[in-house]
C-alpha cells in the first residue's frame, strides 16, 4: 500500500530498465499456442485473497474460453507502472496512491476495476498497548517506510480525534515482520491490511491484537481504492478486445469469490501451494462480504473517490502536477450486469 514511495524513484531510467528486466522476457505478441492470445498479469505482492478472482478464472478455464493464455508473474523490483507502460506486462495490481503519482509523472496506467470497494487498511497493534482510538496513539511509535503519506494520515487521524500528532514518534523500519517488531518493542503500531496481517495474527497465530480500521474514520481521512486492476493506455487503444475479454472472465472469478470463499482459497492454494491455507480460508471468508456493498456490481469505480483522493494527495504535497482524473480510470470494460 505504500509502494508509491518507490514510484518516484522508479521513474528514473535506471530503475525503469531494471523493472523491465525483472518482469519477463519475450514478445507478448507471439501466439501462445492453440490460437490463444498470451496475456501476463503482474502481482503486486505475495499471492493473497484479493487476487482470488484471477486465480479462480484461471483455474476454471474462463480465460482460455475467452481465447486468452493468462500467465501470472511476480512483481517487478521497480513496481508495476513502468512495466505496464513499456508493454512488458498486460495487466497488474496497483493502489490508487501509486496510480495518481505515476500519472502525474506521465506514466500512462489506467485503473480498470476496484478489487475491494473500500479501503481495508488498518493501524495494527498489540492490545497491551491500550490503544482503542486514534488519540491513544499519542506517545506511541509508528513503524513504517518513512513516507509522507503515512505521516499525513496518522497525524490527521490523531488530530481529528482530539489528540496531538506531535506526540507520535515515527521510525523507518521497512518491510519487516511487524508482529515480531511490536512484540520486541521496536515500535508500537504499523499500517497493514486488515484482511491479511491482522487476520493472520488474530485468527491463525492467536495473538491478542487490535486495529483501527481506516474505513471507520472517513470523517477524518478519505476512503480510497487499494488495490485496483490496471493496464496501460496503449493496450486499451490497440487491443480493447483483449482488455474486455480479460475483464469479463475476471469479473466471473470475483463473483465466485464473493459467493464461495472456500473456492477462492482453494484456487489460490492450487496456483500458489506455498500459501498458508488457514490464512487463505479466514481471509477469503472475511473478504467475501467486503469486495463490494450489497446490490452493487463488483469492480465499479466512483469518480468522486478519484477526485477526492487526488485532491487529498495534492493538499498533502504528495503530487504537484495536475492529472486528468477521467483518464486515470475507466469502468468501460466491466460487463454490464
Short description:
InterPro entries: NMT1/THI5, SsuA/THI5. The protein is of the alpha/beta class.
- Give the termini distance in whole angstroms: 30 Å
Mean pLDDT, all residues: 91
- Round the Cα radius of gyration to an integer and report it: 20 Å
Helical segment count: 15
Strand percent estimate: 15-25%
Spatial order of strands in the largest sheet: 2-1-3-10-4
Identify the overall geometry.
Answer: globular
The strand count comes to 10
Structural class: alpha/beta
Protein architecture, described:
- The protein is an alpha/beta fold and 337 residues long.
- 42% of the residues lie in helices and 15% in strands.
- The strands form 3 sheets. The protein has a 5-stranded mixed beta sheet. It has a 3-stranded antiparallel beta sheet with strand order 8-5-9. Strands 6-7 form a two-stranded parallel sheet.
- Helix 7 (148-160) links the parallel strand 6 and strand 7.
- The two termini are 30 Å apart.
- The model is unreliable at 1-30 (pLDDT under 50).
Topology of helices and strands:
Layout: H1 4-10, H2 13-23, E1 37-42, H3 52-59, H4 62-65, E2 68-73, H5 80-85, E3 91-94, H6 96-104, E4 109-114, E5 121-126, E6 141-144, H7 148-160, E7 169-172, H8 178-183, E8 189-193, H9 194-204, E9 209-213, E10 228-232, H10 233-238, H11 240-259, H12 261-271, H13 277-288, H14 303-315, H15 325-328
Helix pairs in contact: 1-6, 3-11, 3-12, 9-13, 11-12, 12-13
